[in-house]
Amino acid sequence: MNPRHLIFSTDRSIRLGRHVIFWLSWFLYLSCTQLRNQTPDEVGMKSFVIYQMSVSANRIFLQMLFCYPFIYILIPRFFQKKKYSAFFLSLIVLLVIMYWLTYIDYLYIWTDRSSPIFFDIPGIRPLSPFQAKYFAAYSNIHCTGTFVAVSIILSVKYYKNWFNKERENETLIYQNSKAELQLLKAQVHPHFLFNTLNNIYALMLDDSPKAITVLNELSGMVLYMTNEGTGYLVPLTKEIKMLQDYIGLEKIRYGERLEMITDITLDEEDDLLIAPLLMIPFVENSFKHGASNAMDHARIHLQILTQHDQLTFIIHNDIHPIPEKGEKRIKIGLKNVIKRLQILYPQKHSLQFGEANGLFAVTMNIMLDKQKPDPKTEKSKKNPLIPVYA
Predict the structure, then answer these.
(1) Ramachandran area for residue 387 (φ above 0: left; ψ -120 to 50: alpha; else beta)
(2) How far apart are CA 120 and CA 117, in angstroms?
(3) What DSSP designation does 72 have?
(4) What tens-digit pLDDT sequence spans the chain (390 residues)?
(5) Contact at 8 Å (CB) between 190 and 215?
(6) Angle CA 353–255–194, to nearest 5
(7) What is the DSSP letter of 229?
(8) CA nearest to 366, candidates 280, 273, 264
């Protein structure tokens, strides 16, 4: 059992164990730090040790009588419910009871020799009546007193509550972010399908045999989105393959009217992972607002490159006289990607939109994660099988 599990576990037996460990530790601390009015040289080491441990055990018992009602009754029933008058009144009553219990304890166990429960240790002088009254108050407030013990317990208890609350908040934030990501990702699918089905519809109106080819390509892309696209991260190569398939569909649609330049340079391509369906909205946007509005010739230039862990994605297309310009061009698909980037790659991405020289350009940089190597694969690489020839 590690210390973290011991402190934060809600298991009944472990909770009981925490209390036992605390009070044993506190007992040892009291036994080693309290100095009585007699030394081992005066009473002998055996009597001194017995006295130290007996008084410490007695004080532990008295401290427990105060700590548990205070922590588990007064605080939750009054203080946490903001019943401050009842809390302070109950605290005063508890302090008075605590004082008299301590005084009676010291009087009958450590002061009055005629008491039937007087703890008589050879060589140890009993407390005087004044010492019994004085220690009844002093023993609760100094560095080994009841108030110190209750402060330690409360500190640990409230630290646990704070820690658990933080964990709950983190879990809630994670679940909300995950739900939001699923919603954003789900929005990409109908948006993409709507545009592609429109392309197929246009080909069917022209009675083009290419419609069947496009439909087959689309089925493969939908299969990718329903399988790979539902994951948190996918290999960059698979995402680019899906992107190239989509571009292939658009090339079929536009034919010679489209001048599509694709420049893809990957470094360590097998190791890099990316959140699915991050790049395709930008490519869709280029066709929708660039190629589809071109009267004759349309140009789109796509560049994807990786260097170490950084992905650079650049796409630009011709600007044509359409009503929407600048920020208004950033529609649902692009806003979707912006939000996903903020959730998935905080402080690890940059995204710029711009218009210059008749071109609308999007530049995105992302620090990608690397795929963890498979131990079995790594082992097989280190210990390749050597063929045996008979």
Answers:
(1) beta
(2) 9
(3) I
(4) 677 777 777 788 888 888 999 999 999 888 887 766 677 777 888 888 888 899 889 889 999 999 999 999 999 999 988 899 999 999 999 999 989 998 999 899 989 888 999 988 888 888 888 888 888 887 777 767 888 888 888 888 888 888 878 777 666 566 555 555 554 555 555 656 666 677 677 767 766 677 777 777 777 777 777 666 566 788 898 889 888 888 887 787 777 888 889 999 987 656 789 888 888 888 888 887 766 555 567 889 999 999 888 999 999 888 765 544 444 445 566 777 788 888 888 889 999 988 887 788 999 999 998 876 555 544 544 444 434 332
(5) no
(6) 60
(7) G
(8) 273
> What span, in angstroms and rounded, lies between the C-alpha atoms of 375 and 364?
33
Is the distance from CB of 350 to CB of 342 less than 8 angstroms? no
SS3 201: helix
The helix-helix angle for 12-33 and 45-69 (nearest 10°) equals 140
Which run of H or E residues covers position 227? Answer: helix 210-227
Alpha-carbon separation of residue 144 from 2, 23, 167 (angstroms): 28, 12, 34
pTM of the model: 0.50
Radius of gyration of the chain (CA): 38
Contacts of 12 (CB under 8 A, 6+ apart): none
Token pair of 101, please?
Answer: 């219990």
**Exposed e or buried b per residue across 58-93, where buried means at least 16 C-beta atoms within 10 angstroms of its C-beta:** bbbebbebbbeebeeebbeebbeeeeeeebeebeee
